[in-house]
Amino acid sequence: MQTTFVQLLMQHAKARPHAPAMREKEYGIWQTLSWSQLAAMVEQLAAGLHQAGLRRGEHMVVVGANRPRLYATMLAVQSLGAIPVALYQDAVAAECVFPINNAEVRFAFAENQEQVDKLLEVRETAPQLTHIYFDDPRGLRNYDQAGLLSMDALQEAGKAYAAAHPGFFADAVAQVKPDDTAAMFFTSGTTGNPKGVVHSHDTLLNRARAGATFDRLTEHEEVLAYMPVAWIGQNIFSYAQWLSCGYVVNCPESAATSTIDLKEIGPTYYFAPPRVFEGLLTSVMIRMEDASAIKRSLFHACMRLAKRVGPVLSSGGQVSLVDRALYALGNLLVYGPLRNNLGFSRVRVAYTAGEAIGPDLFSFYRSIGVNLKQLYGSTETAVFVCLQPDNQAHADTVGVPCEGVEIKVDGSGEILVKSPGLLRGYYKNPEATAEVLSADGWYHTNDAGFIDAQGHLKIIDRVKDVGRVRGGAFDGAMFAPKYVENKLKFFQHIKEVVAYGDGREKVCVLINIDFDAVGNWAERRNLPYAGYTDLAQKPQVYQLIKECVEQVNADLSRDTLLAGSQVSRFLVLHKELDADDGELTRTNKVRRGFIAEKYQVLVDALYQGLGEQFIETQVKFEDGRTGSVSATLKIEDAKIFAPVKAAA
């Protein structure tokens, strides 16, 4: 059934006017907004924006954290036939200039003073940005820039306009059609300017319904909206599926309180990229290291059992009565309290996506009773391409094609997709559109993979990233950098990894330690350190990381396809990779090519066999100031294992 976002809102407001639609935590107290209250807010904002001059087909930027009024603004924009464009709230002003100019944006929603300042700075190179509306007035009392207005004032103006024109809103909503453009999402722009991915109401809602049907989602779900709205994953789970199903979306007070808010809400439906699951596990392991010897022994004994029994039980398999009884005891003593501590006591379905998750990390959550599954999709496919059935969640696959999706693998190993959720195209970029969309409707994902005997899709890496080792003991062996990086990132002491090896005689990596985890580890050993740079270069830390690298090498040696991807040399970077320094995208994906250029002296040192290398790097601080960090980095060799031949 084709419909639009605002029509779904009005249906919920009519059928369930007093049911909760959203909750927002403010000053430590959860505030509830009903469907009827939300619909009234949307009508008032739509009338206010129309009166201010926003017209059908125009774009309006929204920038800020998840807030009811931000969601209401997006719905108000869509009700007028205009198009909301969410930008990352942690992006600096310079990163906002291209999207705003590319989409010829005149109107913008800003959550608070920080975002207002950013948009006012953007005005210097985007003078058409004439209307800026802010939600949180703190710090803005003395601002008198032209076109700057509070959302309260906009809503009041809209309320008066709606009262004077009682049929305006209903007429506007009726004119919006399912095939109209509903939203535009800008890609992270790892290799140049970002591209605007254009989606209609139907492409987004079709995929939202497909995912909801697959996992039997209902209006009774509870969701925590804490990821950036500019990321299409957040948009699908907390916006498109929210309106499709009518469940409750909860907005945390701030990023700093999201872990606490997660425990308070106890979501039933949860979505996070691997990085979040890694962080949660790291915090658990840090606390466990500080526990008593008895608690640590009990935890590790139960986890050994869970690792062996948990995945079998979660997949509907059979285990012995003894193992079943022991697992039940472990659930009472360890797994249940652990899920509760993580905020996952009520989770019925949890998804991870955005990049591949380490198999050990994936197995950990499933082994303690969290129904964690992987999905496959992208901004261009409106997320849902493949999903994992509850009893067929495997660490090395991303599931089966969901409703309406066709998949094929071409001769080069690239995955091609046909789906009702495919993008309309890239905004003002027909050349880029033609590169990814064939004339017969197939989308080129740029991912390499294959479909296994059970019909599940396996992703190896990005097509452009999969390479070959040239020369040395593993000449001609496949090199999959993301696979290597993810295996290393499973260890709680490693936060980020950048692997190189294509066209070279060996694989070398740059590593970021997890400052909290390694700092806790150092403190328990009375190892003093003066900060990240000092801690990262401690000989004891290098030995700790070396053990992780060699454990991964041992695992890789048992993989006939990727044994040649074992890490020969590594170094620990003197600073954390940061999106503000251009080293990560705003979705925290490594910009491998940029890093290779920026740290070329380090990459060269790794391959030239040097034992250490001095480097000085410019960094950008949160307040906009710049500085530099310098250090002489040690370079270590790691043990390489002979490939283990499969049994005949």
Helix content: 25-40%
Number of DSSP E strands:
28
Rg of Cα set: 25 Å
* Major sheet characteristics: 5 strands, parallel
Structural class based on helices, strands and sheet pairing: alpha/beta
The low-confidence runs, each spanning 5 or more residues with pLDDT under 50, are none
CATH topology grouping of the domain at 5-271: Rossmann fold
Q: What does the average pLDDT come to?
A: 92
CATH 2nd-level architecture of the domain at 5-271: 3-Layer(aba) Sandwich
**3D shape:** globular
Top-tier CATH class of the domain at 5-271: Alpha Beta
In CATH, what is the homologous superfamily of the domain at 5-271?
Answer: ANL, N-terminal domain
- Termini distance? 54 Å
Question: What is the number of helical segments per DSSP (H or I, 4+ residues)?
Answer: 21
